[in-house]
Amino acid sequence: MIQLGQYNTLVILRETEPGLYLGDAEGNEILLPHKYKPETFEIGDDIEVFAYLDNEERPITTTLTPYVTLNNFGYLHCSDVTEFGAFMDWGLEKQLFVPFKEQARPMKIGNWYIVYLYLDELTNRLVGSSKTNRYLNNDTVTLAQFDKVDILVTHLTDLGANVIINGVHKGLIFIDDIFEDIRTGDRMKAYVKKVRDDNKIDVVLQPPGYKSIEPNANFILEELQAAGGYLALHDKSDPQKIKNELGMSKKSFKKAIGTLYKDKQIVIKDDGIELL
């Protein structure tokens, strides 16, 4: 079966005026328009294509890369809003429709949104939804501390960064564990810091425990070298000053300089730290 909203590996059956007709093992056929056909090909070749519906709601394929695939989340730009709903740019000729009932809040032209792509079983159409919580579930969590995961940043709050973990779970990076500039829509690797009794998941961007100190320690060494061997920051410095100058929490800063001090790479003075 040819799956809409997904990549399909199909066989080139024949070339016609509209384009190449492709088929699967079950005898289903679908068109790949001429503008997307490969420069060289032979009848019988396998080809990987993405299947969706064109502007006339006909199944069609493309070699373009969509920004989101079926049952997954993407960070999409709203290019139009009509009386029926919003339309998102998802990298294909036909834009992705997000009806008003699927909008967590009214979408506006020019804004970006986290959108989930699903197949409407009644209409057999691909549809987007920004009501992402309904597609996430923390009832059963099989993750464990230190597991490496894929995350998508959904939004930032005073508490930290809310994220989607492995496309399945909700999670949080606490503000004190953020040491770099991250924004909504960022995709990156992370590590499970803790799975709480209520199945809420805390994640960090660096390996938890002692290993997470090392990148911060190296970063401080680089900053010391760039500053001529001295920084006017120490374990009594204001946390906001440390955050502004180094982009890390005071807790992480203290752990890092403690490591450097034990390794005899710095000396901690009353008014700052100095490179040895």
Descriptive overview:
- By secondary structure, the chain is mainly β.
- It has four domains: 7-62, OB fold (Dihydrolipoamide Acetyltransferase, E2P) (Beta Barrel); 73-133, Nucleic acid-binding proteins (OB fold (Dihydrolipoamide Acetyltransferase, E2P)), CATH 2.40.50.140; 148-205, Nucleic acid-binding proteins (OB fold (Dihydrolipoamide Acetyltransferase, E2P), Beta Barrel); 211-275, Winged helix-like DNA-binding domain superfamily/Winged helix DNA-binding domain (Arc Repressor Mutant, subunit A).
- Helices cover 13% and strands 38% of the residues.
- The chain has three helices and 18 strands.
- The protein has helices at residues 213-226, 239-246, 250-262, and strands at 7-15, 19-23, 29-33, 46-53, 59-62, 73-81, 85-89, 96-99, 112-120, 125-129, 148-156, 160-165, 169-174, 187-195, 201-204, 230-231, 266-268, 273-275.
- Strands 3-2-1-4-5 form a five-stranded antiparallel sheet, with no helix packed on it. Strands 8-7-6-9-10 form a five-stranded antiparallel sheet, with no helix packed on it. Strands 11-12-13-15-14 form a five-stranded mixed barrel.
- Helix 1 (213-226) packs across helix 3.
- The longest helix has 14 residues, at 213-226.
- The radius of gyration is 25 Å and the shape is elongated.
- The mean pLDDT is 92.
